Known about the structure:
alpha/beta; four-stranded antiparallel β-sheet; globular; 13 strands; single chain; six-stranded mixed β-sheet; binds ribulose-5-phosphate
Amino acid sequence: MTQDELKQAVADAALAYIRPRLENDTVLGIGTGSTANLFIDALAQIKGQINATVASSEASAQRLKGHGIPVYELNTVDRVDFYIDGADESNRALQLIKGGGAALTREKIVAAVAQEFICIADESKLVHTLGQFPLPVEVIPMARSHVARELVKLGGDPVYREGVVTDNGNVILDVFNFSIPQPLTMEEKINNITGVVTNGLFALKPADVLLLGTAEGVKTLRAEIRAASPERSC
Ligand code: 5RP
């Protein structure tokens, strides 16, 4: 199967996962990226059953609205039941790197509110140690050089993502050559740099479920080994 076929399979699997769990008042959080787009398109098949969504980007909000699916501001809902989104990398503890589409801050906010975070990804995204994918960091524009110097001190090679302005009006530094064996510690360290809005590590609040598209079919992984992490348990 091609990568696109695997993405379609996990989008369909996510729809099958949430469909029997939908209530009249369910609020769905919707992620950003090509896999999330396939989920949005799948969701359109049952749009009459969708009470409310909140989106992690302007692009996803527009796509949802294009299908006639109701989209609300996060501040106007009292909870998010499920958050469905892709990832750039996941380890087996379901700690993620996200932000390849520059939507990491809103993604992290919606994930923080959600009662259950369902990550959808093809098998190329599953890694032993995070960091082969360059880690995105959203930065206040005037702090770009300062944050880049601090990221070098942490051992990475930050590169300014030219021409990209986030939905929040900020810029992105992508940190290359940055193996991350201790994602919890690194997420906190980077967030503590003045000028950082957030970083693309989702380790403090990882996914709850990973629907992983493989040649043998979609596998359901849960973050069972998180407590066994030598770093510290969540
Ligand atoms: C966007 C993201 C995406 O979830 C991530 O980049 C994966 O994208 P895709 O589904 O296109 O592979 O974090 O900010």
